[in-house]
Amino acid sequence: MNVLKRIIDAVRGGALGIAELISEGNGIEALEHQLLEVQDNLNLVKHELTEVMAKQMHASREIASLKIAISEKEQEVGAALDRNDEAQALVIAETISVLDKELESEQQVHTIFLGHVSRLRAMVSKTERQIKDYQRQLHMVKTTESLQKASTAIAENYTASKGKMHSARDSLDIIQQRQQRALDLLEAEEELEAQTGHKTLDERLENAGITEATMSANAVLDRIKSSRS
Amino acid sequence: MNLSDLALRITDMASYDGYKLECQPIPGIADVIQITVQGFEELPAFVSFTDAQLLCITNLFLESEVNPDSRGRMLEEMLELNIPMPLSAFSKLGDRFVIFGAMSPHSSLEDICHEIVTLTENAVEAIDALKDYLVPLPVGKGGSR
After folding, report:
1. Which of A56, A177, A203, B46 could form a cystine bridge with A113, CB 3.0-4.6 A?
2. DSSP for residue B14
3. Residue partners of A39: CB distance under 8 A and separation at least 6
4. β-bridge mates for residue A220, sequence order
5. What is the mean pLDDT of residues A154-183?
6. Is the pLDDT assigned to residue B142 strictly greater than 50?
7. What is the per-residue pLDDT for B144?
8. Comparing A97-111, A178-192, B96-110, which segment has the lowest mean pLDDT?
9. With 80 as the cut, is the pLDDT of residue B121 above it?
């Protein structure tokens, strides 16, 4: 059954339905088991593919060397015919006939291996798609399990904070009021800074008769007084 | 990174982008942690890991807080808001409407903090945007945030 449909059915069945979905034999463990089986299967198929490909390459090499041998023998037949040595040409032609049969047989083997390789390659990609599909299903079931835990955590949090529970609107009000207070505080600080900043300090010093000029004059006077004593 | 690493690193971190984040384990539930952004304590994010993804979920409101007369319109609006809302989407867990973000389990600490801060801010904006569809809770049926 489609895993998304199973999840929807489980969600409709509430907590019990989800517990059943993720339980042993039905959910995560079953999918993990299937995934392992398919992965093992893929490894076997890949191993077999490697072997068949090696045999196919061997057959290719055999075909190539037989073709070279046949071509060389054909040249020898040509040379014998050029020498009018019909008997020798016939002996070599017989060898060529044997090589031809070997070539034909090797080509048949090669064709069979080619078919195997293409079938095994198709099997590898089908199995890899199947693995991806199982992984996707496993992720979906695991996410459902994780969601179930998060949902329980939210419910626990609700139970734990009964004393300070709020509706969404109340929470919004509290947060917005807090943000407004922070903004008000910031504005008040800026205003205070503007009022009690550098300028006002100068003004207060001047009011107290402590200007920059008087301060330096007093310092000079103090220095002269102390040098005279 | 796993959940314990994340909790430890967030606790160690003084602040992220000016926001202070606080991690709290949920008693009895090992696979989920609660992360709150200072100033938004009423809307904690619940974070859990799977092999495939990291889920951050924030509770919005209970089914019982929704005005039944305008529920359909609200759901449609939530669907319409899903794409424009950055990094988060609406969902429902049992009788709770939630907002969530899903990330790669290999995300960096900065990315996770960014997601949590964005999720929390989105939650505030979402409740603000949808508050006209909500009704005051009957006494004794409040939901935790």
Report:
1. A56
2. S
3. A131
4. none
5. 79
6. no
7. 41
8. A178-192
9. yes
- Report the amino acid identity of residue A139: H
Strands B45-49 and B21-26: unpaired
Phi and psi, residue A204, nearest 5°: -65, -35
Q: What is the pTM of this model?
A: 0.69
Secondary structure (DSSP) of chain A: --HHHHHHHHHHTHHHHHHHHTSTTTSHHHHHHHHHHHHHHHHHHHHHHHHHHHHHHHHHHHHHHHHHHHHHHHHHHHHHHHTT-HHHHHHHHHHHHHHHHHHHHHHHHHHHHHHHHHHHHHHHHHHHHHHHHHHHHHHHHHHHHHHHHHHHHHHHHHHHTGGG-B-HHHHHHHHHHHHHHHHHHHHHHHHHHHHHSHHHHHHHHHHTT--HHHHHHHHHHHHHHHHH-
8 Å CB contact of B26 and A157: yes
Give the CA count within 13 Å in the CB-facing half-sphere of A89.
11
Among the residue ranges A162-176, B18-32, B103-117, the one predicted with the least confidence is A162-176
Q: Can you give the pLDDT at residue B61?
A: 93
Q: How far is CA B106 from the centre of its chain?
A: 20
- Reported ipTM: 0.81
| DSSP one-letter code for B133 | G
Residue A151 CB neighbour total at 10 angstroms: 21
Of B34, B55, B136, the CB nearest to A157: B34
End-to-end CA distance of chain B: 27
Q: Which of B28, B42, B134 has its CB closest to that of A166?
A: B42
Task: List all residues 6 or more positions away from B40 whose beta carbon is below 8 Å from its beta carbon.
Answer: A175, B120, B121, B123, B124
Nearest to B45 by CA among B116, B98, B142: B116
- Which residues of A fall within a CB distance of 8 Å from B98? 154
Q: Which two tokens stand for residue A155?
A: 């419910």
- Please state the rounded mean pLDDT for residues B49-64: 90
Q: What is the pLDDT of residues B41-53, one digit of tens each?
A: 999 999 998 878 8
User: Cβ A167–B28 below 8 Å, yes or no?
Assistant: no
* B68, amino acid identity: P
